[in-house]
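# nightly structure sweep
# worker-07 picked up a monomer target from the shared queue
# config: single-sequence mode, recycle default, output format = structure tokens
# input follows
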Amino acid sequence: MSEILNKHDFSFQKKYGQNFLQDYKIPRRIAAECTEYTGGGGEKIPALILEIGPGAGILTKELAAVFEKVVAVEIDRSLEPVLAEALEGYDNTEVVFGDVMETDIQALLKERRMSGDKMLPVSVCANLPYYITTPILTRLVEDCGCFDYITVMVQKEVAQRLTSAPGSADYGSITASMGLYGSFKRLFAVPSGCFYPRPKVDSAVIRFTTYRPAKYSDSEIKAAQRLIKAAFSVRRKTLVNALCGIVSLDKAEIAKIISDTLGCGESVRGEKLSPDDFVKLAKALEGYME
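# output follows
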């Protein structure tokens, strides 16, 4: 990998949080485990993979070997000659340069997911920069509900948070919010030595499986997210106190609804509630939320 980067005078840009995989075993395993789609007869799996941040293309090539189509979105245009050379001969890949946070992903995928007269299922695979992990994941699940799987390599601590259970020390608002759309599974760890330049922290690969069909309606999700935001705004607050600012009831009335709906005492905190609990409570508080 270093040879092709040096050949094209590529310089890593700190603002993009660039750390490229250099151990080929890792992207090969990611490509193998990033979905649960199945193929047949040794042919490529009929699916479209959206890759975010292909870097030098090491993962892109492995994805192209497994899936029918790969579309990669890369923010750094200085990688254009690197990717052109790295992906030469991989006719089922396409690189689009731009910021994924400003890209109309639905429009990008609309025509590309057609294969003959069939529409391919779509999933995401990405080695996400640590600084933008949460915004990208949030956008993928909230604005682009067409994905079956979202497999990402993230900082180890972020992976622990996203795969944590209610009541654990790592459980937070992003965990609860993502849980309204699907569920995470931790796949494997990736030591820092597998990257160049070497980051200061280890990483992990996690896979998000979206609910098909959706488990909750848009209105249920919107209401539950309001409660989640309030519940985790100050972690040490009890749920009753946290909800006082958005519910037009007094503390005793809120405590009674929580008790009747979830069987919890008035001292329960938001981090104890599952995504399903937040949906149930939102329904019970319907008409009282300001």
